[in-house]
Design goal:
Number of helices: 1
Mean pLDDT: 89
Low-confidence stretches: 17-24
Number of strands: 10
Order of helices and strands: HEEEEEEEEEE
Largest sheet: 10 strands, antiparallel, barrel
Strand content: over 45%
Oligomer: single chain
Shape: globular
Distance between the termini: 37 Å
Radius of gyration: 18 Å
Length: about 210
């Protein structure tokens, strides 16, 4: 699957100029929620080719006024680049985001985050530690959301993460269905490029609205 996250992210960032020329509108998007994402996928290959990547992410958003959101994301990712090695990445990124209503069906959210990344690699046979480090990380993301109906929403997300030893360009697309007043269930696809390798993952997400 040939996905170019940096170019998609650039396109989404250009969309960030739209609010300068657009009057704010109202819609049914809820930005007070907690979420949990679980995904698995392929390392350096198309989705479904192998299952060498597993990821769990939890976090949430809190809306302080019409435009300002507090965000928190924590992710644990387990990668098997070969039969004998496991790489573990743990990323904690609190941040702030700004929400713009483009019209009654479209929202644009631009966010900035700063936090920490812990990473380690080990030999599965000998338990030898091959690498271990933790560093400051910063990130920026842009999300374009569309409300298809009262219960269905889709999102396109582009994100850049940067640290001294781990850089990631991330593209995510997802579709969610609100099954109750408080619960949204979604399916998603994620492509991650760190400059040397890529992962392609599919997953499910549960969101609790409050």
């Amino acid at each position: 699957m040939d996905v170019k996250p940096p170019y998609i992210l650039l396109s989404l960032m250009l969309l960030g100029l739209l609010p300068m020329f657009t009057t704010n509108a109202s819609n049914n998007f809820n930005y007070n929620y907690l979420y949990a994402d679980l995904s698995a996928g392929s390392y350096d290959d198309d989705l479904g080719t192998n299952s060498n990547v597993t990821s769990l992410a939890v976090g949430g958003k809190k809306q302080f006024d019409k435009k300002i959101l507090a965000t928190l994301d924590y992710e644990a990712r387990f990668i098997h680049p070969n039969d004998n090695t496991t790489t573990e990445n743990y990323i904690l990124l609190p941040g702030v985001a700004f929400n713009y209503s483009l019209d009654d069906k479209w929202d644009l959210i631009a966010g900035a985050k700063t936090g920490y990344v812990w990473s380690s690699s080990s030999n599965d046979i000998t338990d030898e530690k091959l690498f271990s480090d933790g560093k400051f990380m910063w990130a920026g993301d842009v999300t374009l959301k569309h409300e298809i109906s009262q219960y269905w929403q889709i999102s396109l997300i582009g994100e850049l993460r940067r640290s001294d030893f781990l850089d990631e360009d991330i593209f995510n697309m997802r579709a969610g269905y609100q099954v109750t007043d408080k619960i949204v269930v979604a399916g998603f696809y994620t492509h991650i490029n760190n400059g040397k390798t890529t992962t392609n993952e599919g997953g499910i997400s549960v969101k609790y609205l409050y």
